[in-house]
């Protein structure tokens, strides 16, 4: 009696075509012949894993790499790779690798998942900074090996949102280029609320040159941005940035830019210090002063019902668009090209 692997290839391809992602992964584990047959298939012949989110995390304290894959129905598949035990744990099942580098095992697993991922992800999240501090660990090389996954899959990752937690500039530059710029809508570099060190700094000179940066619509950064050139951020419709300071001439450039953009939503700058109040008043005229802030309002080109509100406080500056009815009583609304 012939085995299933001896069936004609088109029959096996049909079976795999009607199977879901998890079934095909199970088939790969049955025998080497199945694994080789599946691995030799074209990506177009594989089912879509159809994940919504992928999280890729390194944990220095536990000497682990963790992957989490989330379905659109909320189901989460978590895989842990332990360097100390050279093992992989998936849904309470352990596998030990005596003669394999656990980082290579993790990268190979991720490559396989990405081969099956045809639809666009909602979000991919990287938190891989910990092992930069452990040069003697094999997981120290994880970010670099991670960047090679796209070369193995021979395509970039399609995701709407790209998140980095506490990653350094080198890691961001390496991993951002793994994503498809035509799919990307939001870039986020962030720290958790419970992170003790919120003084992380990020130079963005090289990042702003990437196609991913230029084509994204939203940008959020909890690190202190260094070498900020406002010309590099004015294409975003939504912006939230920490930076040490910003000049009055930069604010004037942003005001002129945003009053000519019909899709602009908001720009929030958290500052260490701002000393340009007098210069801004010379540029924009007297502000409407409230208890906590100075406020200016400007018309937006081609929009009749909305205005640009600019609010300056001691440590932040906020540009946002809202309807006329929310303009403070007594405020003067200037023309979009005034001054």
TrEMBL record:
Residues 1-54 form the F-box domain. Pfam families: F-box (PF00646), FTH (PF01827). GO terms for biological process: innate immune response. It comes from the Eukaryota. This is F-box domain-containing protein. It comes from Caenorhabditis nigoni.
């Amino acid at each position: 009696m012939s085995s299933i692997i001896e069936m004609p290839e088109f029959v096996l391809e049909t079976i795999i075509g009607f199977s879901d992602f998890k079934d095909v992964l199970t088939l790969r584990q049955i025998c080497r012949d199945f694994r080789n047959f599946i691995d030799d298939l074209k990506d177009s012949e594989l089912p879509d894993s159809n994940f919504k989110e992928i999280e890729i995390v390194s944990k220095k304290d536990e000497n682990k790499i963790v992957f989490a894959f989330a379905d659109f129905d909320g189901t989460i598949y978590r895989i842990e790779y332990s360097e100390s035990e050279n093992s992989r744990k998936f849904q309470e099942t352990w596998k030990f690798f005596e003669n394999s580098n656990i980082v290579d095992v993790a990268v190979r697993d991720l490559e396989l998942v990405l081969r099956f991922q045809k639809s666009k992800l909602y979000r991919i999240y990287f938190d891989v900074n910990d092992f930069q501090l452990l040069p003697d660990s094999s997981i120290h090389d994880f970010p670099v090996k991670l960047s090679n996954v796209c070369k193995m899959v021979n395509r970039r990752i399609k995701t709407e949102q790209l998140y980095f937690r506490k990653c350094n500039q080198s890691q961001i530059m390496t991993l951002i280029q793994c994503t498809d710029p035509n799919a990307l809508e939001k870039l986020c570099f962030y720290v958790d609320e419970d992170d003790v060190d919120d003084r992380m700094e990020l130079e963005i000179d090289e990042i702003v040159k990437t196609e991913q940066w230029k084509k994204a619509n939203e940008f959020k950064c909890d690190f202190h941005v260094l070498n900020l050139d406002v010309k590099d951020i004015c294409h975003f419709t939504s912006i939230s940035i920490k930076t040490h300071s910003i000049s009055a001439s930069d604010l004037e450039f942003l005001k002129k830019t945003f009053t000519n953009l019909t899709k602009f939503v908001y720009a929030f700058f958290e500052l260490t210090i701002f000393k340009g109040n007098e210069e801004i008043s010379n540029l924009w005229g007297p502000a409407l002063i409230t208890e906590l802030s100075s406020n200016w309002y400007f018309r937006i080109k081609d929009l009749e019902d909305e205005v640009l509100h600019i609010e300056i406080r001691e440590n932040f500056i906020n540009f946002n668009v809202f309807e006329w009815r929310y303009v403070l009583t007594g405020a003067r609304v200037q023309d979009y090209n005034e001054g």
